[in-house]
Write a structure and sequence with these properties.
Blueprint lengths: L3 E2 L5 E2 L7 H9 L8 H14 L4 H14 L5 H4 L4 H8 L8 H20 L3 H6 L7 E2 L13 H12 L7 H10 L3 E2 L6 H9 L2
Parallel strand pairs: 3-4
Antiparallel strand pairs: 1-2
Helix pairs in contact: 2-3, 2-6, 2-9, 8-9
Length: about 200
Amino acid sequence: MTGHDHADGVKRCPWPKSDPLYVAYHDNEWGVPEYDDRALYEKLVLDGFQAGLSWIIILRKRENFRRAFDGFVPEKIARYRKSKIGRLMGDAGIVRNRAKIEGAVLSARGWLDVMEKGPGFSKLLWDFVDGEPKVNRYRTMGQVPAETAASRALAKELSDRGFKFCGPTIVYAFMQAVGMVNDHLITCDRHAAVQKIGR
């Protein structure tokens, strides 16, 4: 599949189809370089919750997740106890998966460790692409990889630091979303727009 025109005349990647929420996410967020430490933690955790599901499910529940997880403030999540995890397991507004909820807590502790003793979360991540977005020039969705050498290396680094639900495929989806790689198809209007933001 290649980028295609929508009713508004905009050429987009095909994956958001015509879902308004998905289209807005594609047009405003996906692929835009993100350097904020906390925002990067939130996105990595949400991508972990996506495992085995589709991103649109998580996107529709994102505000519920933000409410349930105290705005994704890692300092708070790192202190969650069994009672809080139990409450989250009873929250129908989020994905109720105990391993993923507990993984978010462990990842928050990993995040704190990187912030306190390491280079900082944003720098740790962006160093895997030499500090700037890698611009790809794919014409079809079939050309876009599920993982890369960089995502495999980053996944190992995160895992070694105690992060959970961060395998190479999840990490590559994360890298695409936060603009570490520009994987908008070259037929998509956002490819050039995101490239300008990344400079």
